[in-house]
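Sanity check record (used in CI):
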Amino acid sequence: MTIRVLLADDQALLRSAFRVLVDSEPDMEVVGEAADGAQAVALARTARPDVVLMDIRMPGTDGLAATRMISAEPDLAGVHVVMLTTFEVDEYVVQSLRAGASGFLGKGAEPEELLNAIRIAAAGDALLSPVATKGLIATFLAQAASSGDGPDPAVSSERLDALTVREREVLVLVAGGHSNDEIAERLQVSPLTVKTHVNRAMAKLGARDRAQLVVIAYESGLVRPRVE
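Expected output for Response regulator transcription factor:
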């Protein structure tokens, strides 16, 4: 199966570099290029890519707004957004995860990292290290809470009511940065059983992938942020 990739970046030179890299892979192809978020959304509707490499900062409709629009359309549920950012730690990264992105990647990443990220995102998984996601979200939510702009745990925790005890336990471990194999070892069950619990939790919580589960775990208060 060929992974269909849409490139969204206002820098033509960077798009060209990404196109050469992606098209050089036998299991990938670039199906479109967009110079801003509005074009990205329009092309996502027509080209139906598996993965969108989306720059966060673009003129007009930026990557964050475009990601929200793509994630809000049921017909585009199979489109996974990978946010590209110049800065590894950026509050917009967390906002993009909340908006429905599968994760983020720094523009300084190595070619193999980018290609691997595309494959992981296309499979419906979070493309970035769960530990990195956890640390970033914890920092952001702690800062938001201290400024009074954080989510209301009483309201957010209502989202967890549909989960079983085991699904909550798995969610905590996912938010802790553990892989399915590691969770399986801790709970003494098979990785397939863990995957089933993760998928059920995602369905019940309306999460697109593991990155979204991490966000929900923190926003609901199920996992408490700790800032080093």
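The longest helix spans residues 130-147. If this sentence no longer matches the regenerated tokens, the check is flagged for review.
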